[in-house]
């Protein structure tokens, strides 16, 4: 109870930060940018936050982090519009919305589908934020007891979730993690001071900064993907106008389906907290579970409002949930949260329980912004959907150079270093190729951001244990977390064995 | 797709080989206080090489491979966007960021966007001007100036 009261007190302090005119202004700018990014197909929320990362460095940190997070919230909302109206997902987490949202729009219920999606987003994020406020402080206080071995184990757990719970190739996930970690070793060795992997270059001596690399991988990479995918893209024009009747119908549709909204929210929040997952899998799981437990599953896909509410509330809650491990443990819950983590480092802050406890205004300003940003975004969406939908008509040849210039200038402005501009280009091309070949970029980004911390914690632990790795097994908590991480690393092998055994059993049952 | 798969995997393999050689120079052994400077690099390089081997084997064994580009037009379009970006990056040290933006935005909208001359002129003039006011005047962040800036012919 005391902890809850303390959380509420800190939330009040956070609201004081968030409700300052400058913070409100930057939050609204972030939300608008996020909405535009969400509407534009091919440019994801992760890319949007990555693009704006260097620019956020130019504003005070309390406001900068609110601005960056607002881009994410805006993108979560923005994807709704194009998915429902044009069947073009602005974001990967909006794909599940097409299944029922677009058929509803074609039936003349676009207004209802949009308002239901916006209100379910609102409820998903508000409930997610309440869970966040209740859970954050106890987790952070518990994590304060962690020493370097426990922190190393937690980071290993984050990497293991990518391998164990990832849907793609295990080898590609592993190689991305290894490359990300390797990039963090470039520069001076933290213990011996020896230059590592610099090959005599002065540019390499300062190491790879995660901002240009992330901006290249997610920003320029997405631009190149978009250049390819936009060919032959056509969309049917459906009216985006919404009236009071639609608002009322949208609210009532949520009210009559509170069970589905709550299910989507809680499920989404939990999935969001798992490192490396985020809103996309949450939206599919939300849709799938709602359909599975529905009394009329056959109606899903024909355009029913449940098919809009479930994935959208889950996606929005997952976005909120992905910040919980980020602010309490320093582990990102989604690729976008990984880029936000880079933002924390950019401000010279080391994410984790200590930051959570010591930087009250910074962290609780961010948490309070969840509530405020959500309310502002709902109003913008309800009022400005026709205008946002018209962004799709802005010529690609105008938008692309603006984005590319923003990427390059932003990356340069961080350190005034030409090397960083080359990093954006090279990692952009590499990111494009990797994405086309289904390499998961999230583990690379997370490894890049957490790599130095992982190495520092590993080496500190070994120094603590006089060079012996036994230190990881002598401490029960470290051993437990590492054991769990090991199980997750082994999960793909277990999955492969199960498939083989089932295959063999199936073959044995077949008649001769 | 298979060729692209080998190309990217090959790039990682080269990276793995180079870093593994460098790790030996740094020392891959173990001291009394813990690992030497090249210890972690060695194991990461080894992991990279093992993964690259597995990726190449899986790709080789795959019976059907999808094409890397969706179509020939898509390939050309992507190539153009990458090429214009490369030209932009190469121009920056030569003519400064503002003139590079002027050339890049004009080239992109005229060549790839097939925009009318006044749209091309508008975008290529507005963009560097807006960035100049935002960065140099507003945020006080200096960007790379052109060679004519020293002579005072241009404010950037």
What does this structure look like?
The complex is a heterodimer of chains A (512) and B (156). Chain A is an all-alpha fold. In chain A, 77% of the residues lie in helices and 1% in strands. Chain A has 23 helices and two strands. Chain A has a two-stranded antiparallel ribbon. In chain A, helix 6 packs parallel to helix 14 (306-321). The longest helix of chain A has 34 residues, at 110-143. The model of chain A has no long low-confidence stretch (mean pLDDT 84). Chain B is mostly helical and 156 residues long. Chain B has two domains: 2-61; 72-151, no CATH class. In chain B, 72% of the residues lie in helices and 3% in strands. Chain B has four helices and two strands; from the N terminus they run H-E-E-H-H-H. Chain B has a two-stranded antiparallel ribbon. In chain B, strand 1 and strand 2 (34-35) form a beta hairpin. The two termini of chain B are 45 Å apart. The mean pLDDT of chain B is 88. The chains are: A mainly alpha (512), B mainly alpha (156). Chains A and B meet through helix 8, helix 10, helix 19, helix 20 and helix 21 of A and helix 1, strand 1, strand 2, helix 2 and helix 3 of B.
* Quaternary state of the chains: heterodimer
Number of helices of chain B: 4
Q: Mind describing the biggest β-sheet of chain A?
A: 2 strands, antiparallel
Q: How many β-strand stretches of chain A?
A: 2
Q: Radius of gyration of chain A, rounded?
A: 23 Å
Largest contact between chains: A-B, 60 and 69 residues
| Secondary-structure element pattern of chain A, one letter each | HHHHHHHHEEHHHHHHHHHHHHHHH
Residue windows where pLDDT falls under 50 for at least 5 positions of chain B: none
| Backbone CA Rg of chain B | 24 Å
Backbone shape of chain A? globular
Strand content of chain B: under 5%
How many structural units, i.e. domains of chain B?
Answer: 2
Counting DSSP E segments of at least 2 residues, the number of strands of chain B comes to: 2
Distance from N terminus to C terminus of chain B (CA atoms, Å) equals 45 Å
Kindly report how far apart the N and C termini of chain A lie. 67 Å
Order of strands across the widest beta sheet of chain B?
A: 1-2
**Beta strand % of chain A:** under 5%
For the largest beta-sheet of chain B, the strand count, sense and barrel status come to: 2 strands, antiparallel
Strand order across the biggest sheet of chain A? 1-2
Class by alpha and beta content of chain A: mainly alpha
- Our count of helices of chain A gives 23
């Amino acid at each position: 109870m005391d902890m809850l009261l303390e959380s509420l007190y800190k939330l009040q302090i956070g609201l004081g930060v968030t409700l300052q005119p400058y913070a409100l202004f930057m939050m609204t700018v972030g939300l608008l940018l996020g909405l535009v990014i969400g509407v534009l197909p091919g440019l994801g929320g992760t890319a949007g936050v990555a693009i704006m990362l260097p620019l956020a460095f130019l504003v005070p940190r309390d406001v900068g982090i609110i601005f960056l997070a607002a881009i994410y919230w805006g993108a979560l909302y923005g994807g709704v519009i194009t998915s429902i109206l044009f069947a073009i997902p602005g974001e990967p987490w909006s794909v599940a919305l097409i299944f029922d949202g677009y058929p509803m729009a074609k039936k003349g219920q676009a207004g209802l589908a949009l308002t239901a999606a916006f209100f379910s987003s609102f409820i998903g994020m508000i409930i997610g934020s309440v869970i966040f406020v209740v859970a954050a402080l106890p987790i952070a206080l518990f994590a304060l007891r962690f020493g370097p071995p426990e922190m190393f184990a937690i980071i290993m757990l984050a990497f293991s979730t990518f391998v164990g719970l990832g849907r793609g190739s295990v080898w590609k996930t592993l190689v991305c993690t290894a490359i990300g970690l390797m990039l963090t070793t470039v520069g001076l060795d933290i213990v011996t001071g020896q230059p590592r992997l610099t090959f005599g270059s002065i540019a390499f001596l300062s190491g790879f900064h995660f901002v240009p690399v992330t901006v290249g991988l997610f920003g320029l990479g997405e631009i190149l993907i978009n250049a390819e995918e936009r060919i032959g893209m056509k969309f049917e024009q459906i009216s985006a106008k919404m009236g009071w009747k639609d608002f009322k119908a949208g609210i009532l549709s949520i009210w009559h389906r509170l069970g589905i909204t709550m299910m989507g929210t809680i499920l989404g929040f939990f999935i969001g907290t798992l490192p490396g997952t985020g809103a996309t899998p949450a939206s599919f799981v939300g849709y799938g579970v709602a359909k599975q437990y529905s009394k009329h599953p056959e109606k899903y896909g024909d355009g029913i409002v449940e098919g809009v509410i479930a994935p959208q509330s889950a996606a929005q809650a997952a976005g909120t949930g992905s910040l919980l491990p980020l602010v309490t443990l320093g582990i990102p819950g989604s690729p976008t949260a990984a880029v936000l983590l880079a933002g924390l480092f950019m401000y010279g802050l080391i994410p984790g329980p200590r930051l959570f406890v010591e930087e009250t205004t910074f962290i609780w300003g961010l948490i309070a912004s969840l509530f405020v940003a959500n309310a502002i975004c709902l109003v913008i969406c309800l009022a400005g959907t026709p205008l946002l939908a018209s962004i799709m008509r802005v010529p690609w040849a105008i938008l692309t150079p603006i984005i590319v210039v923003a990427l390059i200038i932003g990356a340069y402005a961080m350190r005034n270093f030409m090397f960083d501009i080359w990093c954006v280009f090279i990692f952009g091309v590499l990111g494009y190729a990797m994405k086309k070949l289904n390499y998961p970029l999230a583990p690379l980004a997370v490894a890049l951001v957490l790599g130095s911390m992982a190495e520092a914690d590993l080496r500190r632990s070994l120094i603590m244990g006089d060079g012996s790795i036994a230190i990881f097994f002598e401490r029960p908590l470290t051993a437990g977390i590492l054991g769990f991480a090991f199980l997750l690393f082994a999960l793909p092998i277990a999955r492969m064995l199960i498939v083989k055994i089932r295959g063999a059993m199936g073959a044995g049952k077949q008649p001769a | 797709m298979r060729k692209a798969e080998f190309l990217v995997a090959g790039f990682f393999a080269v990276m793995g080989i180079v870093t593994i050689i460098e790790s030996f120079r740094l020392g891959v052994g173990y001291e009394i206080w813990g690992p030497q400077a090249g210890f972690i690099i060695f194991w990461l390089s080894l992991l990279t090489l093992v993964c690259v081997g597995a990726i190449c084997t899986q790709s080789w064994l795959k019976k059907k491979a999808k094409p890397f580009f969706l179509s020939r037009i898509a390939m050309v379009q992507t190539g153009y966007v990458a090429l214009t970006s490369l030209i932009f990056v190469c121009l920056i040290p030569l003519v400064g960021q503002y003139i590079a933006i002027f050339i890049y935005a004009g080239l992109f909208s005229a060549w790839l966007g097939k925009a009318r001359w006044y749209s091309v002129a508008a975008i290529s003039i507005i963009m560097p001007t807006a960035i100049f006011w935002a960065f140099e005047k507003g945020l006080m962040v200096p960007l790379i100036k052109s060679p004519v800036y020293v002579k005072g012919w241009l404010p950037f």
